[in-house]
Amino acid sequence: MTPILLLAAAICAQAASADLPLYEQEPFDRITLNEANDGTVLDVEPLDLPDRRLPEKPKSTDKLRVHLLSRLGDEYEVAWQDIAKVELFEQMVLAEAQRLTAQGELEKAYDYYAYLEKQDPELPGLAEAMEAYLYEEAKAAHRAGRFDRALAMLRETYRRNPKREGLEKALGMATVQQIEHYAGGHDYAAVRSLLNNLAELFPEHEVVVQWKAQLVRQAEQSLAEAREAVSQQRFGDAAKSCRNVMALWPDLPGARELAEQIHAGYPRVVVAVTTVASHAEPSSLFDWNARRSGRLQYRTLVELVGAGTDGAQYACPLGQLTLEPLQRQLVFQIEPGIGWAGRTETLTGYDVSRQLLWPVDRWGGADRSVGDHLVAQVDVRDVYRVEVDLLRAPLRPERWLQKIVPPVTWSGPPGRFPANGSYSPADGGVEGATFTANDGYFGRQAGQPAEIVELALEPHQAVAALRAGRIDIIDRVAPWTLPEVQDDALKDDAVVAIQPYAFPLVHCLVPSPRGALVSRRSFRRALVYGIDRQRILTQLLHKRELPGCEVADGPFPGGYARDPEVTPRPYDPRLAIVLADLARRELAAAKSRPPEAAGEAKSSDQTVPAAEAVPAAEAGPAAEAVPAAEAKAADATKPAGKAEAEVPGGNAPDTETPLVLAYPPDAVARAACTMIKRHCAAVGIGVEPRVMTSEETAVLEQGRFPEGVDLLYVELAVWEPVVDAARLFGPGGLCSHGSPYLQLGLRRLADAADWSTARAALTAIHRAVYDETTVIPLWQLTEYMAYRRDLEGVAARPVTLYQNVEDWRPSFRYPSP
Fold this sequence. Notes:
Elements: H1 2-9, E1 29-33, E2 41-44, E3 63-66, E4 76-79, E5 83-87, H2 89-102, H3 106-119, H4 126-143, H5 147-160, H6 167-184, H7 188-201, H8 206-231, H9 235-248, H10 255-265, E6 268-273, H11 288-297, E7 303-308, E8 311-315, E9 319-324, E10 329-334, H12 349-357, E11 375-381, E12 385-390, H13 397-400, E13 423-426, E14 433-437, E15 451-456, H14 459-468, E16 473-474, H15 482-490, E17 496-500, E18 505-511, H16 521-530, H17 533-540, E19 550-551, H18 573-592, H19 595-605, H20 616-619, H21 628-636, E20 659-663, H22 667-682, E21 687-691, H23 694-700, E22 711-716, H24 721-729, H25 740-751, H26 755-772, E23 776-781, E24 784-788
Parallel strand pairs: 6-15, 6-16, 20-21, 20-22
Antiparallel strand pairs: 1-2, 1-5, 3-4, 7-8, 9-10, 10-12, 11-12, 13-14, 14-15, 16-24, 17-24, 18-22, 18-23, 19-23
Helix pairs in contact: 2-3, 2-4, 3-4, 4-5, 5-6, 6-7, 7-8, 8-9, 9-10, 16-18, 18-19, 18-21, 24-25, 25-26
């Protein structure tokens, strides 16, 4: 006895930190001596036992060889007759896991069980304890309304012990709750999946029987409605009812055959879009959705159809267009029989002539017609031939001719022209925007989709739906989902294809002409220097490099319109702070001046200084146009030894009202504006992003800046700069408040008779926009579309999604039961 008592006197606390969870501590075993040895507790190194299991009936005279944690290296012997209890480390971990489970600390308990199942899955008592834990976790998830997690826990419990008492009832309750959730969202495929999962475990469960009967009953009713609609030649209604059958219970007898029959007579395409269009404008500079919808509903005099070696390519869908540069004449030969949806008239040369001669703003637009500055005379011959004499031979007149032509008798509201395109909008209902084919459309083709449905889906939802075959096309693949879609498209058995659109978009911030701060050039430059555009672009692209995606130096995409000597301004937060402070001081000084002086000061801020107002061709190599005083002040803010990219937090006060930054309802714009807000906050500029309303988006087409907005996030489609520069910066444009030097460049561009003169004018415009920071350029993005390979006829590198929608041929697909 004496040696044991001596050993007990030398025992100390376990070496592992008490703050760590038990399973993370250095393993040890614990021996508790009997009352004759005062119940002393010994913490020892893990005992060397066969399979780490205690002997069932050790002899009292046998001895255990132990190494005390307090005396490493020394070995001692303890007789079994002196031992009251031996606790192995694994048993102590299990006991702690059970204690945490009983107290409801389930997240902590999970880590203990995970450790044991990895280290000793055959530990006695572990299976029963883990089963009890899973059941408690399921009950907690059910109480919290997390029925999907409750189901996962209960199914795992079933896998471990199918005969556990109460399991069948619990699985039924959790399944019903989740079914009701999915049924409320009309996701009957998920409902069927839940029923199938439950039926695998309990085939005659009352939940399976009741819900199957309900779904079958509803499907039979829809199938009867579909058959009646087919008999009455109402294929649109028949397709809708048949979709209900496929959603509710596709295994219903006769449903597949009827669905195939309806598809043959009424093919349908489902498109995932970021946002349903609020209006249709085929040649919009700002609105992706308006351009997409515009091609469905309208065919313009001339359409942009692709990019070529000599610039943009155009086609005349309404007939033939001939340009005679030497005679300065355009000749339209209109195809007879082209009409408008819901009207009896057909297009003639008189409709075209009126559109060429009358200002478009009569109809609510901002863009002026060709007749305002190009057309000398228009003659209509033989009803369908239109001869247009021009005042001069313009460059790219086709771009000016992307115009909707209403009938002469039209007197409706602006922007509500009757459609002459392949599709007309119908009631979308819960599915979103629905478009049905126009029976009288002049370009209608046999086999083209009879109906197109647009669903507004988040990026990851769209990718999942495309893989599952619930949709046919993703109109616009978000950059951060592009890698996984590309990987899908590269598989040997790929069902998905992906391709870029013909032209990129340039993302910019457009300052309000009425904004006190943003109307000052120094503040606009502060925004450029204060936003780490490369970092945001890298995040948007998911850290991948894509062709055509780069930081922008102006509103023009790569090509003939850009000044090669202009490069994007770098990220410089210190300079941003200085310029923002300078703008605030200038604004405060202007407010303190008499009205006349303040007006002069404001005017001078919008004018390029004399040193800068020199055409690029005469000025030689361009230098960064930051006034010397600004650059000197910026240098003064850089502490010695500090990195230039470091942002001095808290040095820049932000006392003014945050700038309102409005952005289109798009996932990319939303993500970008969230990051822009953080970057601006770091340099003391308050920015509050908010999504634009459909009304605000529509007024951009008229060159009107939304009320109460300081900055607009826009995605510019300046695809023909020789024409679009005037649409953007000229009179009636959204950015028409540029300096006289910029307006001079636009006049030179308008008078250009050859490409060399036009390029010189465009580079001067590019330089002026850059120097004045008329817009805050962000980045250029290449847009991608993705589609199911069984959708035939999709154009390669289209300008807009529906460019050749008449050639689409959707294949028949039927969902799995």
